[in-house]
Design a protein that fits this description.
This protein has 159 residues and is an all-alpha fold. 77% of the residues lie in helices and 0% in strands. It has 7 helices and no strands. The radius of gyration is 16 Å and the shape is globular. The relative contact order is 0.15.
């Protein structure tokens, strides 16, 4: 049962990362963010198909490299938001980008740790929560028109 839930969570996250890449079409820096989301989409899709892929050296290297880049991006965006943010950071594009990087980093960490021992208990519950969080957030943002009102035009036309 835990193995099936882990695969389903990876399938959900692959879908989320793929959708996140697709909505970058109108973004001024779409190329960067499309790659940022497509790499974990591919990696998590592979895990959903074959969870033992996390033992593969190439998979682990790509996961580590991408995670390191996301951590650097997270730090840079967090510093920028700390210095310049006014109000709710989700109302700022950099805030949403920051949360995307955090989600990627957390998920890649869960995938990477699943190679050592199968996910179960607290880690499986954390995986389920993390896998559902982006979809619940998107639903909340879609319903909350007031939140989207302050967004740049390129963000409003994709949803």
């Amino acid at each position: 049962m835990a193995g099936r839930l882990w695969r389903l969570c990876n399938l959900l996250m692959a879908a989320f990362f793929g959708l996140a890449a697709a909505v970058q079409v109108n973004d001024p820096d779409a190329g960067l963010w499309t790659v940022v989301y497509l790499v974990p989409a591919a990696l998590t899709l592979l895990v959903s198909i074959n969870p033992s892929i996390t033992d593969n050296g190439f998979w682990r290297s790509l996961c580590d490299l991408h995670s390191a880049g996301c951590i650097v991006g997270t730090i840079a965006l967090a510093c920028s938001l700390f210095a310049y943010a006014q109000g709710n950071i989700l109302h700022q594009e950099e805030g949403r980008e920051l949360f995307g990087l955090v989600i990627i980093t957390i998920w890649m960490s869960l995938c990477r740790s699943s190679a050592k021992s199968p996910l179960g208990g607290v880690r499986l519950i954390a995986a389920i929560v993390v896998a559902l969080f982006p979809f619940v957030s998107w639903l909340y943002i879609y319903v909350n028109k007031e939140m989207r009102a302050s967004w740049p035009t390129h963000c409003k036309t994709v949803i």
